Amino acid sequence: MAEQATTDSRPNIVLIMVDDMGFSDIGCFGSEIKTPSIDALAENGATFTHFYNYARCCPTRASLLTGLYPHQAGIGHMTLDLEAVGYRGFINRECVTIAEAVKGGGYTTLMSGKWHVGGDYLLSATNEAHPGEEKWPIPVQRGFDRHIGTLTGAGSFWNPHTMVDGDKPIQAEGDDFYYTDFIADNAVDFIGEHGVKDNPFFLYVAFTAPHWPLHAFDEDIEKYRGQYRDGWDKLRTSRHEELKGSGIVDSKWDISPRDESAPPWEDVKDTDWEDARMAVYAAQIDRMDQGIGRIMARLEAMDLKDNTLVMFLSDNGGCAEFLKEDGRVEVAPTETRDGRPVRVGNHRDLMPGPDDTYLSYDLPWANASNTPFKLFKHWTHEGGIATPFIAHWPAGIAAGQRVTSPAHLIDVMATCVDVADTPYPSEYDGNAIQPLQGESFRPAFSDDQWSREREIFWEHEGNLAVRQGNWKLVRKFPGDWELYDMDEDRTELDDLAGKLPDKIAELRGLYDNWAANSRVIPWDEILDLPKMAPTKLRLYSTLAYKK
């Protein structure tokens, strides 16, 4: 018998998810923000121009990790358990994570960063959460050999809560602790530890940047201070021109008008404060890119770069949430690590960045982040669901690929099991597993004619959409359905609903059938659930979308 090779030739997989970053916030997608590491991935890999997320953090992460729609995975809204099968607030046992799937094929599975698919963790009710129990599953229970990071969503970059190493709580340490660096450094260490082994690894890197609060090092802020004094209107125009020039967006798509809730820049009085908010946001992205650079450098130093598939995307569009001065944020600490009080909210007498502040960058800048699209995180118009997506794999992707066919994060699982040569299970740990909803986009790495066969669907907070080929049917709750030809009008300016009733009826039928089979409950019924009351309080007492 011939001797078998001990080295596994399958690629390593590194999946990088960033948080609340808009469509045009990186250099290769039109931004003035310096992202050389991400830009290099795009230049030497494949750029997807029509890639979609699920409009909000928890549903996106559930869908990304499982290859199912979020309601099927148990997170039809956020992480509060609403005691409805599609809305338990944690990923269920009728799905597998990418980690569980590829681990069955011999991969080592690693995670650094934000989990946020494992139940509700509030600072005001920390004793009510029990990590590791059914309602609070943690990464090392869902297929990851190692995890270091946070279990909840947003939080202080200087003093994050719910940090764990596996199943053990840990605290921020060191005077220079910054969560973005912590996530990147642990990812680098994981590669160093496991990249020397014969079997490949799957590494999920889940940054919290650039989600609020606006926290960054002075050295990074200084790179951008003063760059935004011309305001959001000129920024949107300049980014749009860059996007058209690079071919990321078609020149025939007009930029959407400034959002009606955003004032013209000439009417803004506190321009220094506004400039500072966007400068800190840019600094957060810059620092994240530096971390990605260190990850790629470690792969290259270990001669792993050529046979590692790296994928990069954002969990939703730019975030329009305005942190009210008199509101409360359940994930915000009341004190800094050295005991100083933290002022929460967009107080105009506070400059963002330090650890004793807790601000957001808010709607007008989010409108610029989502150039050229309209609306934001939460909504299923393009500003809420369109993300840059980059795939880099020198051994498997020719440099400079451009993929224009629609794809969705439910396709990531299908692609991972495809390149890992690992079957997607029909049963796992004694549980029947729901059929995979995504399609592998691996053929797009070598064939620019690849196209997704099945429609793509969305529902979040009553905001609905279906994408079929070049057609998109979309609804902003509680409004009427709108219809757009995405080949001609991806910025959703020319609503064809009144002209094509048959197409609306066809797409509504597809949506209704999908919703009925995917555990979707109409949003007005969800709002009436008794368990929804705490969430409604948090949604409407803390955050606002207009000043």
Helices and strands, with pairings:
Elements: E1 12-18, H1 36-43, E2 46-52, H2 57-66, H3 70-73, H4 98-103, E3 108-113, E4 146-150, E5 163-165, E6 168-169, H5 179-194, E7 201-206, H6 218-221, H7 231-246, H8 271-301, E8 308-314, E9 322-323, E10 343-344, E11 357-358, H9 362-369, H10 382-385, E12 386-392, E13 401-403, E14 407-408, H11 410-419, E15 427-428, E16 431-432, E17 456-460, E18 463-468, E19 471-475, E20 481-485, H12 501-517, H13 523-527, H14 533-542, E21 543-544
Helix pairs in contact: 2-11, 5-8, 7-9
Task: Describe the protein.
This protein has helices at 36-43, 57-66, 70-73, 98-103, 179-194, 218-221, 231-246, 271-301, 362-369, 382-385, 410-419, 501-517, 523-527, 533-542, and strands at 12-18, 46-52, 108-113, 146-150, 163-165, 168-169, 201-206, 308-314, 322-323, 343-344, 357-358, 386-392, 401-403, 407-408, 427-428, 431-432, 456-460, 463-468, 471-475, 481-485, 543-544. With 547 residues, the protein is α/β, with parallel strands linked by helices. The protein has a single domain (12-454), classed as Alkaline Phosphatase, subunit A (3-Layer(aba) Sandwich), CATH 3.40.720. A hairpin with a 2-residue loop joins strand 5 and strand 6. Mean pLDDT is 94; it is low at 1-6.
